[in-house]
């Protein structure tokens, strides 16, 4: 996470630890949080209006890191080998989730939790990731047969799946993590194959067929 005032940083980190353990930001108490952070309780109000403000600030940090990272991965993969974009993007998403497990646990609980500002911030983050994903697929011409509206729908579905699948990923062992990442990559390719059925050019994102069943491999040869 970016460098910020030490007290603010300690409060955010402490809140994420406690909220992840309890599966809720709403249950945190000010004195408990200050004790976990090693600060005077009054310090909290120098940085945040309330717990919801802290939660939204923590989420903004995730957004500022995760979104440009995913875009960089997609563009680098497209430059190196367009057929690896889906694989590398899924791996990068899950690796970030594992490196920031507390934040993801809070997000997974918060998207249906009692704090409306946090719910809206999480949904806005997922929507932004999806919009950038669709834009990158379009600009990189990874699936030129699909119109932008279809790419938007596809990207929203994929991002939602990755976000919710991260719950299982965080609790899994190494072998299961590998399976979940492969499963996510397969889902992306199957969705693109379905969306592009009958189209003359599926594009690079749908044509890496090593992990696809025989019928899907045949469909991928349309490109």
Automatic annotation (TrEMBL):
Keyword DNA-binding: yes
Xref: Pfam families: TetR_N
Gene3D superfamilies associated with the record: Homeodomain-like, Tetracycline Repressor, domain 2
PROSITE patterns: HTH_TETR_2 (PS50977)
GO molecular function: DNA binding
Residues of the DNA-binding region: 29-48
Signal peptide (UniProt feature, chain positions): none
Residue ranges of every copy of the HTH tetR-type domain listed in the record: 5-66
Keywords: DNA-binding
Protein name: TetR family transcriptional regulator
Organism of this sequence: Cupriavidus pauculus
């Amino acid at each position: 996470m970016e460098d910020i005032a030490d007290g603010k940083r300690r409060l955010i980190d402490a809140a994420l630890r406690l909220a992840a353990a309890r599966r809720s930001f709403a249950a945190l108490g000010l004195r408990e949080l200050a004790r976990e952070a090693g600060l005077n309780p009054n310090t909290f109000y120098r940085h945040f209006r309330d717990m919801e403000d802290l939660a939204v600030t923590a989420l903004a940090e995730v957004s500022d890191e995760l979104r440009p990272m995913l875009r960089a991965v997609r563009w680098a993969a497209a430059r190196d080998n367009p057929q690896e974009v889906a694989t590398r993007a899924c791996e990068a998403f899950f690796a970030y989730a594992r490196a920031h497990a507390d934040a993801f646990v809070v997000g997974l609980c918060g998207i249906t939790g009692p704090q409306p500002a946090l719910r809206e911030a999480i949904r806005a983050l997922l929507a932004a990731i999806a919009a950038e994903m669709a834009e990158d697929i379009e600009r990189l011409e990874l699936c030129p047969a699909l119109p932008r509206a279809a790419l938007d729908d596809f990207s929203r579905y994929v991002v939602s799946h990755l976000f919710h699948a991260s719950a299982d990923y965080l609790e899994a062992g190494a072998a299961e993590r590998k399976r979940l990442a492969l499963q996510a990559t397969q889902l992306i390719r199957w969705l693109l194959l379905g969306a592009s059925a009958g189209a003359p050019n599926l594009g690079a994102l749908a044509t890496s067929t090593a992990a696809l069943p025989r019928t899907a491999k045949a469909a991928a040869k349309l490109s």
